[in-house]
C-alpha cells in the first residue's frame, strides 16, 4: 500500500501519523468508525511501540477535511484511500485495522491493494458483521432527532457533544452520510483475500453476533480467528492497550515469518 504524503502543495493528505517511529519495521493503518475521525485514535500514541508506524485514515468531511465531500460508496472511498502511498518515506509491510464502518473500509482497501499484488500482512476487523451479512438499515433516512438517539444508543459520540446543539448541527450531515454508506453497502464479487483475518468484538455489542463474526472466514483463503473482549460496541475505549499489544504481536510475527529478523533495540 503506497499512500500519498501527509502534505503536498499545501493540501492535506489522507492519513495522520499517531507518533513518530523512525525505526519502524512495519506499519499499521487504522480506519475509524462511521462518524469518527483520526483524532479518535489520538490516545493510542501512549501505547504505540517504537518499532511500528501507526497511521490513521482521515475520511473526507471531518476535522481538517471538513469541506471535502465523502465518496458515494465505501468501495469508492477505499479506492481513493488505497491509491498511492500513505506517507513519505520507505514503503513498509502493512497491516490494516478497521472498527465498525471502518472494518468495511479496511476490507475494501485490502481487496484493492491485494488486486494490485500488495497483500497486507493481516486484516483485523472490529465490531462489524462479515461483508455478506452487513445489516441494511434506515437510520440515514431518519430525522435529526432519530439520528442523535441512535448515536446515544451506540455511544458512538460523547454525550456532552450530543448535548451541544451547534456541534450537532455541524457534524450530523457527515454522520448521516456515513450511516448511508454503511447501511447501503453490498460487497461486490471478487477474489478472496490471501492475508489472514482477525475479528474482534465486544461480548455485549448488539451490532454483531458470534455467527456474523465467524462468517469473516469466507473473505479469505488464509486463517481466520475471532477474539472477544468484555464490553459493548466501543469496547476499544476500555481495551486500548490490549488491542495495541495484539496488533503489535500480529505485525511482529508476520514480519518475522516473511522478512528479516526484528531488531532487538532501536
UniProtKB/TrEMBL annotation:
What keywords appear on the UniProt entry?
Hydrolase
Q: Where is the signal peptide?
A: none
Highest taxon of the lineage = Bacteria
| Pfam families for this protein | Thioesterase
Q: Where is the Thioesterase domain?
A: 27-247
Which GO terms label this protein's molecular function in UniProt?
hydrolase activity
Name the protein family: Belongs to the thioesterase family.
Name the PANTHER family for this protein: S-ACYL FATTY ACID SYNTHASE THIOESTERASE, MEDIUM CHAIN, THIOESTERASE
Q: Would you tell me the protein name for this molecule?
A: Alpha/beta fold hydrolase
Whose protein is this, by species? Streptomyces roseolus
Amino acid at each position: 500500500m503506497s499512500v500519498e504524503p501527509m502534505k503536498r502543495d499545501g493540501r492535506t493528505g489522507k492519513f495522520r501519523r499517531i507518533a513518530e517511529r523512525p525505526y519502524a519495521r512495519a506499519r499499521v493503518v487504522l480506519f475509524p468508525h462511521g462518524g469518527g475521525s483520526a483524532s479518535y485514535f489520538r490516545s493510542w500514541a501512549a501505547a504505540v511501540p517504537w518499532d511500528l508506524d501507526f497511521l490513521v485514515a482521515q475520511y473526507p468531511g471531518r476535522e481538517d477535511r471538513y469541506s471535502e465531500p465523502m465518496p458515494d460508496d465505501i468501495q469508492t472511498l477505499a479506492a481513493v484511500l488505497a491509491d498511492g502511498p500513505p506517507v513519505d518515506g520507505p514503503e513498509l509491510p502493512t497491516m490494516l485495522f478497521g472498527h465498525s464502518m471502518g472494518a468495511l473500509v479496511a476490507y475494501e482497501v485490502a481487496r484493492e491493494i491485494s488486486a494490485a499484488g500488495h497483500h497486507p500482512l493481516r486484516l483485523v476487523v472490529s465490531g462489524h458483521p462479515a461483508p455478506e451479512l452487513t445489516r441494511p438499515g434506515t437510520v440515514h433516512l431518519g430525522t435529526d432527532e432519530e439520528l442523535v438517539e441512535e448515536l446515544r444508543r451506540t455511544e458512538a459520540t460523547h454525550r456532552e457533544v450530543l448535548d451541544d446543539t451547534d456541534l450537532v448541527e455541524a457534524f450530523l450531515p457527515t454522520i448521516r452520510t456515513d450511516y448511508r454508506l454503511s447501511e447501503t453497502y453490498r460487497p461486490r464479487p471478487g477474489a478472496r483475500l490471501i492475508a489472514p483475518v482477525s475479528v474482534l468484538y465486544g461480548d455485549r455489542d448488539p451490532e454483531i453476533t458470534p455467527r456474523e463474526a465467524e462468517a469473516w472466514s469466507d473473505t479469505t483463503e488464509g486463517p481466520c480467528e475471532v477474539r472477544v473482549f468484555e464490553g459493548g460496541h466501543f469496547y476499544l475505549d476500555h481495551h486500548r492497550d490490549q488491542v495495541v499489544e495484539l496488533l503489535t504481536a500480529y505485525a511482529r510475527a508476520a514480519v518475522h515469518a516473511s522478512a528479516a529478523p526484528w531488531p532487538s533495540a532501536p
